[in-house]
Structures are given as C-alpha cells and as structure tokens.
Fold:
Amino acid sequence: MNKNGIDISHWQGKPDFAKLKSQLDFIIIQAGFGRVASQIDSEYERNYRECKKYGIPCGAYWFSYATDPADAKLEAYACIDVLKGKQFEYPIYYDIEGAACSGDVSGKCQAFCDTLENAGYFAGIYISRSPAQQYLNEYCRKKYALWLAEYGGRLNWTGAVGVWQNSDSGHFDGITGNVDTDICYVDYPAMIKSGGFNGFPKPTTAEPLALDTDGLKKGDKNIAVLMYKQLLQIANREGIIKQTVKNDGGFGDGTEIATNELLKYLGYEQNGIAGVNLAKKLGVIL
Structure:
C-alpha cells in the first residue's frame, strides 16, 4: 500500500490545490518552527484550509532549533498551540535537521514526541537517513512514526519506516519549481482516525451487555441446555473458548467452566449463568 505525496511550506508559495488533488495521495505541511507559537509558517493556514477543501489527507511538521530536550519540549507546546482545532490524517512530525541534529538528538525527539502524544497527537520524526543511523536510538526508531530522507533512488535503511522522502526535485502541475516527494508505506489515516488522534473524535464504546442473573445454570437438564451447549461447541471450534462440553442436555462442571470462559471473553463478571442476554450475544459473535 504505497501512497505518493509531497511536503510543502511557504517556500512553495501558493500551490493550486485543485490541480494537485488528482496527482497526490497526501500532503505534509509545515506548521511552524522554534519554541514560540507565533513562529507559524506563513502559508500554514492556507495550506491546511486548501487540503480540507479539496479532500487531500494531510499531516504536519514542526522545524526544530532546539539545543536540548527541555528546549524541544517548549517547541512541542508551541506546535500544539498551532495544531489546535484542526484534524490531520497523517502524523505530526518533529523536523530535526541542520544545527538541531546534534547533541542529544534522541532526547530531543523523545521530549517533543512524548509531549505531543500526551496531548492526543500521533507523533513522528523527520530526519535524514545518515544522522538517523548515527544519532537516533532504537527506542525512538521504533516508538514514533519515522519519516526518513534520502535521495538517489534507494533508502539504505534496514528497519521499519513509515514515509520515505525520496527526492527534492519533484514537479507537479499546480506548483512552481521543485518540491520534495514522499512515499508512504503505512495506512496512517486509518490508524489515526480509529485511535482518535490528531483532532479526530475518540471512538465510542458500545453499551455493555447486561449481566444475566437468571437463566441456565449448573444442575439444569433440559432441551434448552442442549441447545445452549451446541452453541458452546461452536464457540470452542471457533477458538473463542477452550473448554469442551459434552453433547447432552446436562449443565455440569464443564458447561459452567465454558460459560465463565465466554463471560470473561466478553469482559463481564463470571457468574456461571447463561441467560437471555448471553444467548443473544453468543449468537452475534458466532
């Protein structure tokens, strides 16, 4: 599942998003830089608005000047201020390059990304491949969405990567001059929306099943028990429960164990009773 995109800032002027829509799967826009929220990219608001207008999934990045992790945390707070009230289908990246790509790079990345995650954002790191190998520790490589830059037709990286910036010389109808091009290997929109990150609403949970206090229980022996046990046998074959039950109409120890397994699977108290609500739920999950 490769998606093709670009990343842009004020350096690209005012792109024609109506033309870009048919050429791209996503766009990552610069939100700002440094540790003051007023240092917003001059085209950020327009770029975001145009992405939404034309239905182009977008992410954002924040350019770092941090000298240490404490500085990086301040940059994260500034970034969060700029992101508020917006929704991004792709991660929010910490752009660490140039002078910022020195010293405790991993510490700065972790400080920034953890602050974003605590605020409900899906955080990532943008960094060139060579300094990533040199400065970025294993924790940061695996914990956050990784966006690596390397040109020349090949990404010399053996680990997992979400986005590869493979060129700085892309050409598209709707943009004057060169632009960075990117290939995404991860379905970030699905992950971000389902997790309720980046301004999207948190998923709601269904109403809990009412626990049965009356119904079939240990000691019962009738046709209803036999029918219920047939459902339990299906649940066992499907791997929902481990306990097997005999093909008869008696509610014995094995049936009680199987019933409690099923209740635990559904997340409810294990009282050994199979009532109407449990039977209905069992029919749904099978």
Observations:
- The mean pLDDT is 93.
- The first strand starts at residue 3 and ends at 8.
- The first helix runs from residue 17 to 20.
- The beta strands are 3-8, 26-33, 58-63, 92-95, 123-128, 145-149, 163-170, 179-184.
